[in-house]
Every structure is written in C-alpha cells, then in structure tokens.
Amino acid sequence: MKKIIFGVAFLLFFSFLIVSAINMRSFGEPTFSEMDDYFIENAQSETGVNNVVTSIVFDYRGFDTLGEATVLFTAVVGVVALFRRAIK
Amino acid sequence: MKQMSKIVRTITNLLYGFIIIFGFYVIVHGHLTPGGGFQGGAVAASAFALLLVSYGSLNIQKFLKKDLLSILESCGLTMFIVLAFLGLGITFFYNFLANSGSWFGDTAVIGINSGNMNTGGVIPLMNIAVGLEVLSALGVIVLIMAIGAEFTKKKENS
Amino acid sequence: MIDNFPYIAVIIFIGLGIYTLMFKKNLIKIAIGVCLIENGANLFLITLGYRKGAVAPIYTLAPSGQSMVLPTPQALTLTSIVIGIATTALMLSIAMMIYKHYGTLDTDQVRRLRG
C-alpha cells in the first residue's frame, strides 16, 4: 500500500520534470548577459589577469570563496571528531 | 588494508613525484591558463590517495603524518584571511597590488597575448593559499577514513 | 526536441537520484542517491551559460575573432562541487559509525533507538 502511494508520487514529479525540460529556452542563446559582458570587457584592465573565471572567483566574488573554504574546513573537523577513538 | 604486490609499489615510487609537481604547476599558473587553487589541490591530493592504496593503511603512518597535514591546512586558511584583510583601507577583499608596479604588479596587455606571469596582484597569492588548504584537507579526509575502516570492521568468526 | 538534449540528461540524473532516495533501503545506496542529485544540479548550472560557436573565456593564446562563453555560472559551479565533496565525506563517515554500533546497514532495523 505504501509502495503504491510512493510510486504515484514519483511518477507525478517525474512528469513535471519532463514537461519543464521540453519547454525550456533553446540551448545556446542566453537572454540576460549584461553583467557577463561587462566582466569579459573589463577584467583585463581592472585586475590584470588573463583568466576571466579566476578573476571572478577571487576578485569580483571573493566572499563566496571565503564561505566555501570555511565549509571545507568544517567538514574536516567533523570527520576527525567522528573517528576520535580510532586514531588514539 | 594490506600491501599490494611489488610491481604496484615500484610504479608508485616512480610516479607520485610527477603527480605532485603537475598539481603545483596547475596551482601556480592559475591566473594565465585554466586551473587555479581548487583544481590543482584536487590533482595533488590524488597522489596521496595513490600512496595510500598501494602501501596499505598500516604502513602509511610512517610517511604521511596527520599532524603535519593539519598544520598545513590551518596555515593555508589563515594566509587567505590575512590577504583579505590587508586591503581594508578601501574595502574588504580589495586587490591592492594590481597595476601598481611592485610585487606581481605589471599592467597586462589588453587583448589576446601569450601571458606574463608577473601580473595579477593578490590573485596568485590567494591561489597558493587555497591550493595548500585543499591539498591538506583532502589528504586528511582520505587518511582518517582509511584508518577508520580498519576500526569498524566486523571480526569474522571462522 | 533534439536541441534540448543537455536538459534531458539533467532530468535523467535528478530522476534517478530521487528514485534511489525513495525506494532503496541500504545506507550506502542512499548516499549515492544524494551524490547523484548534487551532480545533476551542477550540470544544469553549466549548461545555462553557453553561447553557440563561442570559445572558453581565457585571453591567453585564444583564437581571434570569436565571442566568449558566459563565465559566471562556471565560477558558481566551482563552489558547488567543493560543497558536494564535504557533504559526501560526512555522510559516508556517519554510515561507517552506524555500522559499528548496530552491526547492520538496513534502515528498517536501525530505526528503533536502542541504548
């Protein structure tokens, strides 16, 4: 009985995904790209690097990189705390 | 985990130096070619995984110590935060070394060129800090989980 | 419809991940399901930023006279991949400690809290 309810719910959700994938915008034509055009034009003169992706990750959006380094550090602290009795 | 055969150990002894040097190449040239801190750190951590698989988790504790990797990881994250605070005269995370003429401060040629390593400002230093942190973090995770797998094994009764 | 093929690959990833989460009982298979959903979301982020006939957004020795792909979704995907590593490592460590304490990995038998 529980399996039938789970099966119907899964089929409903998957049909919603299929309908949205078929009606999606066509592949290869982004519509809103003013911010990225500014990044491609001005990244070499303002930061001085040739790699636009690195200048976005470390200079224009450096705060997200700080959050991600903290998440990686917290994961290592969690793993060491779980296996504390095994490494003694 | 037990040791693997002599052929695997010999090839590992020849190969793991080249993998670590390639990882450092991808980290340091992060502002000119595709790559950077996170990608190069993951490549260099795969050398630690190769050493662990071929030597077994009981013998590896003479080569890779957990305390040294843990200190390196803390140094990497501290260097990243100190570099972010140094530009606080104008704003947090300000690139105060770009186009200025001192260390890493040449102005870049606009358009398609072949790459000058002296450019970039604070970005190559941040690449090295994050690369050191990711290398040590993935090494510690792999090492602790291998030691823990020995600890949680069920004893087989014959 | 064959133009939207990357989006169909994304929904196959996410659909298989949700099927594994709902219908399987082994703890390691549930961890694989969560990892599948996360990788499907990363693929969707990269697919959104493509321009037809463009090259990678790097100025070192680039072929001249062509436009460049949008660089911002690539920067967001880098962060998301590292967070996926952290989640998978913690889930597998908790599964190992549950196996040591209960002796089995079946969720129907782990469900009652014992002392």
SSE diagram, text form:
The complex is a heterotrimer of chains A (88), B (158) and C (115).
Chain A: H1 2-22, H2 34-46, H3 52-60, H4 62-82
Helix pairs in contact in A: 3-4
Chain B: H1 6-28, H2 37-55, H3 66-85, H4 123-151
Helix pairs in contact in B: 1-2, 2-4, 3-4
Chain C: H1 5-23, H2 27-47, H3 72-102, H4 107-110
Question: What does it look like?
Answer:
- The complex is a heterotrimer of chains A (88), B (158) and C (115).
- Helix content of chain A is 73%, strand content 0%.
- Chain A has helices at 2-22, 34-46, 52-60, 62-82.
- In chain A, 30% of the residues are buried.
- The mean pLDDT of chain A is 91.
- Chain B has one domain (6-109, 119-151).
- The model of chain B has no long low-confidence stretch (mean pLDDT 89).
- In chain C, helix 1 packs antiparallel against helix 2 (27-47) and helix 2 runs antiparallel to helix 3 (72-102).
- Chain A binds chain C through residues 6, 10, 13-14, 17-18, 21-22, 24, 26-30, 33, 35-36, 39-40, 44, 50-53, 56-57, 61, 64-65, 67-68, 71-72, 74-75, 78-79, 82-83, and chain C through 1, 3-8, 10-11, 14-15, 18-19, 22-23, 47-52, 57-60, 68, 70-72, 74-76, 78-79, 82-83, 85-87, 89-90, 93-94, 97.
Question: What is the ordering of alpha helices and beta strands of chain A?
Answer: HHHH
Q: What about the largest sheet of chain A? A: none
Largest interface, Cβ cutoff 8 Å: A-C, 39 and 44 residues
Output the number of helix runs of chain A. Answer: 4
* Secondary-structure element string of chain C: HHHH
How much of the sequence of chain C is in beta strands?
under 5%
How many strand segments of chain C? 0
Structure annotation, total helices of chain C: 4
CATH architecture of chain C: Orthogonal Bundle
How far is the N terminus from the C terminus of chain C?
A: 56 Å
And the CATH topology of chain C?
Answer: Helix Hairpins
Helix content of chain C: 55-70%
Total number of distinct structural domains of chain A? 1
- Average the pLDDT over all residues of chain A and give the rounded result: 91
Q: Strand pairing plus helix content of chain C: what structural class?
A: mainly alpha
Shape of chain A: flat
